[in-house]
Amino acid sequence: FWLKPFGLGSTLSGHLELVALTYPSKGKMKINIANPTTGCQKVFEIDDDKKLLPFFDKRMSTEVSGDTLGDEFKGYMFRIAGGNDKQGFPMKQGILCNHRVRLLFKKGMSCYRERRKGCRKRKSVRGCVVGPDLATLSLVLIKKGAEEIPGLTDDNKPRRLGPKRASNIRKLFALEKKDDVRNFVVRRDTGKRKKAPKIQRLVTPAMLQRKRFFRSQTRARMVLGKKLKADYSKRLVEFRQEQKELRAAEVAKKKKEKKVKA
User: Fold this and answer.
1) Is 224 helix (H, G, I), strand (E, B) or coil?
2) C-beta separation of 45 from 28 below 8 A
3) Could you give the 3-state DSSP secondary structure of residue 251?
4) Cα 214 from Cα 5, distance rounded (Å)
5) Which of 3, 46, 4 is nearest to 25 (CA)?
6) Residue 23 near residue 56, CB atoms below 8 Å
7) Alpha helix ranges (H) inside the chain
8) Which residues contact 28 (CB under 8 A, 6 or more apart)?
9) Which of 19, 69, 224, 258 has an alpha carbon 20 to 30 Å from 149's alpha carbon atom?
């Protein structure tokens, strides 16, 4: 690629020209920004590659300022969450390159869902380094700027589903131990009736009784094991005494026979 000479006074502009020449324009890029605080997300189309230069060569989970995206993003900070290239292959964390690679996936790895137990599969994924070949870049808002962004920071969407675990429900509503969690579970309207999730780790009388029953079973097994061990030890002592007496009787019988022969 061709480089323009630049002096010390224009170091930043020369660096931007260098990056722009290194990464030629590849069309529009969509930026999907999610706001975890409000539950909103919005897609922006960026035509100018110069606005995206601060994101290039950055890895996933890196925090980047959004000042170059436009005046409305002044003071905003974003975290790179992922993206897809032009062919739809997703970015995978830990692959330190800006192109596609073929990896052998197994259960538990991201970008892969196991179809059969123990099955592994070789798939193509995009590296975690941002480049101009991406079609979509996913960002998460971590710091809000001075101006409001319509559809992203001015609205507040409630969560469709509430917490399911009993301790999380207590934490959400600041409940005490004596309060019944079942009266505070978040229900969602499905039209004909309201549905409530099954509360996980809920302490009920039936669960406590089951716990006591299991403990009593364990205690009974321990007592029985001790009794059987004591009986075995007692019988082992008796058996050894019997064997000792039998050997003594045999020895005495042999001595008597020797005396008779003599």
Assistant:
1) helix
2) yes
3) helix
4) 80
5) 46
6) yes
7) 11-22, 166-173, 205-261
8) 45, 46, 47
9) 19
**Integer Cα distance of 192 and 210 in angstroms:** 36
Of 161-175, 179-193, 234-248, highest mean pLDDT: 234-248
**Is the Cβ–Cβ distance between 57 and 130 less than 8 Å?**
yes
Can you give the length of the chain in residues? 262
String of DSSP letters for 63-77: EEE-GGG-GGGTT-E
Helix (H, G, I), strand (E, B) or coil at 212: helix
Strand partners, 82: 138
Structure token pair of residue 153: 């920071």
| Cα(55)–Cα(237) distance, integer angstroms | 82
Helix (H) or strand (E) holding 175, with range, is none
Map residue 118 onto helix, strand or coil.
coil
CA atoms of 193 and 190, how far apart (whole Å): 6
In contact, 133 and 49? CB cutoff 8 Å: no
At 190 the three-state DSSP class reads: coil
